[in-house]
């Protein structure tokens, strides 16, 4: 794989991960298992650095936590 192909692959991997994290933030059932699989695959293919791996895993986890808090707050308001 040439350097330009590698950079394109890295860019596409990050774009897909970013899209999945965005989807999590709108989901009615937020989970990060699919996104985590994408992150792990990109990491194993050397498309993510160690820092990139940690960053995206943390971002996915935060997206799930934040979305669950939003949904729980919405449920709490409806029950009141």
Summarize the structure.
The protein contains 3 helices and no strands.
> Which word captures the global form?
elongated
The number of distinct helices, counting runs of at least 4 residues, comes to: 3
| Portion in helices | over 70%
Count of structural domains: 1
Low-confidence stretches: none
The tally of strands reads 0
Q: What is the arithmetic mean of pLDDT?
A: 93
Helix and strand sequence = HHH
| Beta-strand content bin | under 5%
Main β-sheet: number of strands, strand sense, barrel status?
A: none
Work out the radius of gyration.
15 Å
Structural class: mainly alpha
**Terminal Cα separation, in Å?**
58 Å
Summarize the structure in words.
By secondary structure, the protein is mostly helical. It has one domain (15-79). It is built from three helices and no strands. Helix 1 packs antiparallel against helix 2 and helix 2 (33-44) runs antiparallel to helix 3. The longest helix has 30 residues, at 50-79.
Keywords for this structure?
80 residues, mainly alpha, 3 helices, 80% helix
What is the fold's blueprint, element by element?
Layout: H1 3-24, H2 33-44, H3 50-79
Helix pairs in contact: 1-2, 1-3, 2-3
